[in-house]
Amino acid sequence: MDNFKILSLLRGDRPGTITLALVIALCAIVPVLNLLVPPDSPFYLSSYTVTLLGKYLCFALLALAVDLIWGYCGILSLGHGAFFALGGYAMGMYLMRQIGDRGVYGNSDLPDFMVFLNWTELPWYWLGFDMFWFAMLMVAVVPGLLAFVFGYLAFRSRVTGVYFSIITQAMTYALMLAFFLNNAGFGGNNGLTDFKEIAGFSLQAESTRISLFVLSGAALVLGYIVCRYIISSKLGRVLVAVRDAESRTRFMGYRVEHYKLFVFVVSAVLAGIAGALYVPQVGIINPGEFSPINSIEIIIWVALGGRATLYGAIIGAFVVNYGKTYFTGAFPELWLFMLGALFVVSTLFFPKGLVGMVQQWQDSRANKRARAAVEGVA
Amino acid sequence: MLVRIFALLLALLSWPVTALAELSSAANADYEKAVLGLNQMSFVKKQQTLNQLMNTPAFATDPRTVPVLSAFAEGQLFFSKSAQRLVTIEAVNEGMLTKDILTGESLGVLPKTDGKRVLINNGLRGQVKGALAGLQLASSDNATRMAAAKSLIVASDTAFLPLLDNAIAQEKEEDVLRSLAVARSMIQIKSEDVEQRRKAVESLEGALEPEVITALTAITGKTGNGDFVEPDESVRNAAQAVLTSAERTRAAYKSVEDVIFGVSLGSVLLLSAVGLAITFGVMGVINMAHGEMMMIGAYTTYVIQQLLPHHIEYSLLLAVPAAFLVAGLVGVVMERGMIRYLYGRPLETLLATFGISLILQQAARSIFSPLNKAVSTPEWMSGLWEINPALSITFNRFYIIIFSLLVFAGLIIALKKTMFGLQMRAVTQNRAMASSMGIRTGWVDAMTFGLGSGIAGIAGVALSQLTNVGPNLGQAYIVDSFMVVVFGGVGNLFGTLFGALTLGIANKLMEPMTGAVLAKILVLVFIILFIQRKPRGMFALKGRFVEG
């Protein structure tokens, strides 16, 4: 791969470069603080914190995926949690098969919940998930395929705007109901859990945790570069045109539905990968991940961080989730008030999010300096 | 002289009175002694007591016989060792609060060891129930006789045949007569005589009681060693014919029941969606807090019941306008304080109203606790309307259907026949023109949003009777409400009516085949596919203001 090309992608994207540098720095420092620093040192990071930060990295990748379609193509998906959860389930199924005969029932052919439900053989859609490469393929293929079919139908018949938002919400709601069913073969209410190891490494080991954390960071950086590549290409220009004036773009001869479909599928695959990295770190996946409110929460990360700035999505995901962790611990009563207020305040007063605020502040300072310079000359 | 005559007269007059009193107290002692016979150890002796009670006219007609026998059959009759009386137990705590069943006097609190249950076995219980039915058949109340006839269908014991013949001869009420005839045939299908059996089977044509179906199925079946239960072929064939027709009728009624369930689910959907049809359909505001408006309505009902604990009967009638006002007020505040700055930015509106919904949910949690609250159902709403043995509707379903149609009709009238409705339609069709005609568009916006929210509040009153009242009440309905509005066609109230009923009925018709959850999933998938075909719903508005 041509290094210069990647660097040229980041040229002119200073805040993005800074954000990426921070993510990379985080990935370098956290392992050191966790593994090399002795536990009684004030700089020591506990495994709990590492897992938490790893979760944030996965959420940041998910936010990036949503920002790609919402910020740059104007598609507000209220069902992106579904792609995240599907990727998570694909990973969960692989991890389930890795348990082998170490489950409660000691059955090497069937996961525990199937034994419990008196199933005699593995359903066809579980076949192949004992192979790592196949599961990793499915992490991308399953969300991608669903996005392709769903997007193909919706964009072809020009379901746009709010209508699209509402049917994506219906999609994730229907999937949630389906995954809650016991006889769907995905563990029903309890979901998939009690994982033991991934690709031969124990999930309890510190080194595995750290590796997963670093992998999440790497995925985020790669995801950022992919998104940046898309939006700075000619295709990216068309996407922005679709966002700002869909009919006009169509009249100019662009097949709007193809552009939308492409970016929707890419975004779903990114969300699926984020889900797959999330599951081994938190150790469980259940149908609650499909719930419509989760998908809407992703939107607020992006909106608060700054829509249509990729790094804004990353910042938003970190800020909101840190706030959630802090407030649900310290003032559980207040968290929903806070989140609700965030929605209202950020849409009413800061439509450009945190990033926009910083921008505004910088602009006004630059203006003042320019004025001062002009006055100085005069 | 005069005094003596007077005294004699007095004596003459008083003699029958005292004699009667003596006589009746003697009869009473006999009666009480007879009833006490139920408390003997031997079931044969108990049986004799029962026969004695039933065959002595004075005992059988005694008003105390029915309560005593009912308590006996249900195992609620006790013998107090200290009082040597038959008692019922009112309450059990440290001791037992007992009441003499014959005199109705309270015997106060007795130690638990003092009471001994008057035992009964299954054979005897059947007979007691039959005896009770016989006594109730003589009642002058239609409902009591009907209940007795039904219990005889269940019991179906040869011993009741004379009782039934007697009752049939005297019965005038047609429904009761039919049930009595069914009970009689149910006994006679066990007769020794082939001809009588065949007649009984044929006379069961048209009876839909589950017991009849079970009995007929038994007749057509085989015993363990392969012989037919019913030796005579003609009786078997007759039973088969009656059974087939009965099952066809029952299946038809089952479909009718499914449709009624569907309509009642549809009217719940209609209630929850019709407010949204105003805010989303007419105004174009994506109100994600719509579910929370319903929640506010449900909590208003709860609060009103707390304020008026002694008038539960009327609380719902009061809750409807109250919920409308409270939810409507919240809606107006929301519109003036937030939504009006976001017109023309639907996605931003969606996010901001979602924020409001989170705040309202958490507010409900903080004010009323996260636990569900119990809202009581008034007496006139509970109960069952039994149309025939195969079809019955609960009253609350019935009232919900009526109520949602009333609300819908009221809304249509408000929109089509009032000044406010006219202004509202003018503003949604052409804001600039309406404004230049002197309509205060801002005020109309606020009132329209208030109206939609208020109706959601009314829906909450109805929902408080169907589901748990809790902070998450609204969330369960928000996706469904949007689906109904989008399916029916945005901006068209009749489309919403159509959409709600279609989705409700489709859901309930699929449920027996697929199960409730899968039916719901299939409906959602169907809507998602349907929107591809008709992106603007079933009955889309046409014209230049559509894109606005």
Descriptive report:
The complex is a heterodimer of chains A (378) and B (548). Chain A is mainly alpha-helical and 378 residues long. Chain A has one domain (3-377). Chain A is built from 15 helices and 4 strands. Chain A has helices at 3-10, 14-36, 47-73, 80-99, 112-116, 132-156, 161-180, 206-232, 234-244, 246-251, 256-282, 292-305, 310-330, 335-348, 353-377, and strands at residues 192-193, 197-198, 201-202, 284-285. Chain A has a two-stranded antiparallel ribbon. In chain A, strand 2 and strand 3 (201-202) form a beta hairpin. The radius of gyration of chain A is 22 Å and the shape is globular. Chain A starts with a helix and ends with a helix. In chain A, 43% of the residues are buried. The model of chain A has no long low-confidence stretch (mean pLDDT 89). Chain B is α+β, with helices and mostly antiparallel strands and 548 residues long. Chain B folds into 3 domains: 32-120, no CATH class; 123-231, no CATH class; 255-533, Orthogonal Bundle (ABC transporter involved in vitamin B12 uptake, BtuC). Chain B is built from 21 helices and 7 strands. In chain B, the strands form 2 sheets. Chain B has a 5-stranded antiparallel beta sheet, with no helix packed on it. In chain B, strands 6-7 form a two-stranded antiparallel ribbon. In chain B, a hairpin with a 5-residue loop joins strand 3 (96-100) and strand 4 (106-110). The longest helix of chain B is centred in the middle third of the chain and has 50 residues, at 233-282. The chains are: A mainly alpha (378), B alpha+beta (548).
